[in-house]
């Protein structure tokens, strides 16, 4: 299944062909944009069963997880874009200063041109089609490079995108890192990359040669503060949501998955028991949790537990099966902060718990670390919530839940600092792939000669009045009077 992979020599002609389509102007047309969005919705709904199959093949995802995290959320997002596109694409009126009177100004969104999207393997459908929908809505021509680490999904995209979208304006290029490097030899009007910081640095270096603007979605260690909740019901709901966010989203192999918990020391034993019982309830069958991507990543995760200092901190789980590439949900209590499990992004089903004397101490702990893609906190303390918002920096903050912010079209998704830059989802996707062009229209009706040399104090005074936007002073100055 899939279209023929272009040779290295063929990538140049592919990119040139896509640019030729953009230069023809057809991708700018509103009806073309809407047709592409409708095509994406049809692809997701008509090919739903095959999507479930390829995600199962690549990652062992259950159809429930696949629908929740990739198909359902995407259909919702694309429909939202389709319903709001004309409003987003309309020129926006802007105020004009007195010095330009009479004039009108506006901001006109225009497509950037030809966009390259690198998607990642853990949400291989969503991380390809979510940004693609925004790029098409903005009127761009697009090349998508799916991750070679999710080959079944990559082949599905290569086979089906030409069936549902404009096959000349939207291309899918399959291949490994060498193909990605070859693509970056060409000029693009925007590149979006989702993946590791290591590869992100390579993308930026290559993009700099053409001064290509880049958006990077990188991730990092997303912390979760667990304040003590007096209600048993609230505590159980919090643990349900922590368990789901850590282990039922690609087995923790997600950039926005909870990486570790911070909890007050005296409440850690209760939290651990709640986590154990909830894990046993949620994952009674192996198929309810995705598997680890491949042997290399399986061994990377299990090697984190081989450090004796880390192994001694395991309070639940810790076992893995190399034959099925599965690792059971694992909870650790206070592994050393200088161990790999606490310095590297885990990206798997291992959950360290770090204890603090007071919940408020978590804020100082977070401020000492790189800025994460997301911070989560479970608390009913409004003062603590405000402190977290005011005193920490992250791509997003979510209280009393986790990961659900990814599904919101009304707020931006993206990182800050080492967790990436550039925001998308909903209108923010449209804006990411648009240029907001300033347009000013003036009349010949009035000419202010004080704008021009030869200079004298009167002209300087007139300019001062105009910049101060004081109508009374300006009128008096024009009448030759002084105030």
Instruction: Kindly report the name of the CATH homologous superfamily of the largest domain.
Output: Aldehyde Dehydrogenase, Chain A, domain 1
Mean pLDDT reading: 93
Q: Numbering strands along the chain, what is their spatial order in the largest sheet? A: 10-13-14-9-8-15-16
Strand content: 15-25%
Regions with pLDDT < 50 over 5+ consecutive residues? 1-5
Find the CATH topology of the largest domain.
Aldehyde Dehydrogenase, Chain A, domain 1
Distance between the termini: 81 Å
Total E-strand runs: 18
Helix content: 40-55%
Number of helices: 18
Rounded to an integer in angstroms, the radius of gyration calculated over CA atoms is 27 Å
Write the layout of secondary structure elements.
Layout (H helix, E strand, L loop, with lengths): L7 H17 L5 H17 L1 H12 L3 H27 L2 E3 L8 E9 L2 E5 L7 H12 L3 E5 L5 H14 L5 E3 L4 H7 L6 E5 L2 H12 L5 E4 L5 E4 L5 H16 L12 E5 L3 H15 L12 H10 L3 H4 L2 E3 L3 E2 L4 E2 L2 E4 L6 H4 L6 E7 L4 H7 L6 E5 L3 H10 L4 E4 L20 E2 L5 H6 L1 E9 L14 H12 L2 H8 L5
Parallel strand pairs: 3-4, 3-6, 4-5, 6-7, 8-9, 8-15, 9-14, 13-14, 15-16
Antiparallel strand pairs: 1-2, 2-18, 7-17, 10-13, 11-12
In short:
This protein has 483 residues and is an alpha/beta fold.
Descriptors:
six-stranded mixed sheet, Aldehyde Dehydrogenase, Chain A, domain 2, 483 residues, Aldehyde Dehydrogenase, Chain A, domain 1
What would you say this structure looks like, in words?
By secondary structure, this protein is of the alpha/beta class. It folds into two domains: 8-218 and 425-436, 3-Layer(aba) Sandwich (Aldehyde Dehydrogenase, Chain A, domain 1), CATH 3.40.605; 223-414, Aldehyde Dehydrogenase, Chain A, domain 2 (3-Layer(aba) Sandwich). Helices cover 43% and strands 17% of the residues. The chain is built from 18 helices and 18 strands. The protein has helices at residues 8-24, 30-46, 48-59, 63-89, 126-137, 151-164, 177-183, 197-208, 232-247, 268-282, 295-304, 308-311, 340-343, 361-367, 382-391, 427-432, 457-468, 471-478; strands at residues 92-94, 103-111, 114-118, 141-145, 170-172, 190-194, 214-217, 223-226, 260-264, 314-316, 320-321, 326-327, 330-333, 350-356, 374-378, 396-399, 420-421, 434-442. A hairpin with an 8-residue loop joins strand 1 and strand 2 (103-111). Helix 2 (30-46) packs antiparallel against helix 5, helix 3 (48-59) packs across helix 4 and helix 17 packs antiparallel against helix 18. The longest helix is centred in the first third of the chain and has 27 residues, at 63-89. It starts with 7 loop residues before the first helix and ends in a 5-residue tail after the last helix.
